[in-house]
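Q: I'm teaching a short session on how sequence maps to structure, and I want students to see two examples side by side rather than one. Could you give me a first protein with its sequence written out and its structure tokens following it? Keep the formatting plain so it prints cleanly on a handout.
A: Of course. Example one:
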Amino acid sequence: MNRTSSGRRPSADPNSIETKYLKSTVGPVLSRGLAEIVERRPNDPIEYLATFLYKQADNIRAQKQKEDNAKQLEIEKQKAKEDEQYRLQLKNEVRALRKHEENQRRQCRRDAEELAKRHKELAAVSPPLPPVHKEDNGVFIVEFGETELHRQAAIQGANLSKLLRKNYHSIASRNAEGKTPRDVAIDADLQENVDQIGIFRRK
């Protein structure tokens, strides 16, 4: 063993790694324990120091646990905050989506109502009469365009007199085939309709 000539161990090197480690880990606690022994002067200093060191170790563990718990609580608070923000964002997105869908449904209803209104208005408007011009013999000739009189002239039992009273000029109108209502009645072999038209032609 390394001993001095007097038989004692050599003093530890204050700059050695071991010495620095002991100073950084147990040095402060050990110093406080020794200071308490000097102050209190217990009957058994060694037992007192051992108890003191155990208590200090418990305190250190408790403090570390407290710090860990505080960190965990902070993490949980942050996570709860993020979860709440996500729920609010999701709620807002759902609300915006529902509002968009409701606006689309309303727009579709308005478009459908507008279309139905236009169809109703168009159905209520009589088709414009075809332009007429007067020939040299004084007879009004209507330019090509099928009229209601053309359509009714091909129907058996139609009341053509009523139509002719409303619009006498339609008697001379010609459809796309160049035929008058009387021609249509003749082609349909409806003599009654031919006669009704003939009565108005003679007036």
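Q: Perfect. Now a second example for contrast.
A: Example two:
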Amino acid sequence: MMEWLHHDVVELILERLPVKSLLRFKSVSKQWKSTIESRSFQERQLKQGQESGRDPDVLMVSASTDESLRTPVLGSSFSSVKIPTPWDKEKATTLYSVSNNRCDGLVCLYHPFESGYVVNPATRWYHPLPPCQLQQLMISQGESYFKLEHGLFKLGFGKDIISSSTYKPVWAIQLFRDRP
């Protein structure tokens, strides 16, 4: 059947499929793998998904010390995916927070004393973030950072509106200097 369909038609069909199916279809042929991994295809597939109004997936992160419950899980109505993460390999016990926003399916996991991670739960891809200056300060001061009540922090994550293909983590800090 593949020889009967022009590849442009195949691409239009693939754009409408969920990411989980696309991951399986990468093994059909080198051409399909190349297409599915191309930046332009991924952008079209993302746009198609946003326009179709599909139900959003939910990312749940468990703080359980039980190894099987500790990895972020992407949930949908009928399936879930265990995401291989660096802390699975290291058998670490660090508990990561999830940024409140997600952007184009990407989420940011962070911890004050560790490098954060940008994670794509659908493709199981992750990328470590270098520690920012705030984290370097917290690491150098250790637990005394919190005893000195410097402030609260949260990590935001979004897309650069000027360069539409760049994603940026942003630390928001509330200082307690004027506190009574």
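Q: What should students look for in example two?
A: Point them to this: Residues 60-81 have pLDDT under 50 and may be disordered. Also worth mentioning: Residues 39-52 form the longest helix (14 residues).
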